[in-house]
Each structure stands twice: as C-alpha cells, then as structure tokens.
Amino acid sequence: MIKIQVYGTGCAKCTQLAQHAEAAAQALGLECQIEKITDINTIIDAGVMSTPGLGLDGEIKSSGKVLTVESIKALLQQRPDPFAGIGIATGGGCC
C-alpha cells in the first residue's frame, strides 16, 4: 500500500490535490492511504515551503501547486517495484 501525504492547511487547493491523488491511485489500481498533514511545523519540517505539497511514502514530490491526476499517475508509476529482484526458483529447488 502506498502512503500519500498531502501537506497544507486544508484550503481548497489542498483538498483538490488530495482528490487528484486518490483518483490517480485508483486509476492505477493501487491501494493507498492518504494522510492530510495540516500542522504548519510538520509541513515546514518536511521541507514544504509552499502548499499544497505532495509526498509519496514520505518523500516530497511536489510543492506549491495542484498536480493533475495524470501528473500524479506518472509519479506513482516511477516508484520502484517492491518485488524487483525477487525471483521465483524453478526446478531443482528444495521443495
């Protein structure tokens, strides 16, 4: 499950960004948990100097603008595959 953080004080742009993020994840068939971070100190500590901000699994991907659904889909597709490098042994195994 991907964790999506929306950084902002709850304004209309922050709400719109959260909606776009959820729509992007759903369009890709991804399970997501959206966390709305509204505490100004936490926002600043994360490195977001202009809201709304978008984080994916704790990594800031955007700040100061409302990304489109398509832009967020592109960011989600760039995430590394958590199963990359895990092969399934075939033949001659211990089982």
What does this structure look like?
By secondary structure, this protein is of the alpha+beta class. It is 33% helix and 22% strand. Strands 2-1-3-4 form a 4-stranded mixed sheet. Helix 1 (12-27) packs across helix 3. Mean pLDDT is 88; it is low at 88-95.
Mind sketching the topology for me?
Layout: E1 2-7, H1 12-27, E2 32-37, H2 40-45, E3 53-56, E4 59-63, H3 69-77
Parallel strand pairs: 1-2
Antiparallel strand pairs: 1-3, 3-4
Helix pairs in contact: 1-3
Sum this structure up briefly.
By secondary structure, the protein is an alpha+beta fold. The chain has helices at 12-27, 40-45, 69-77, and strands spanning 2-7, 32-37, 53-56, 59-63.
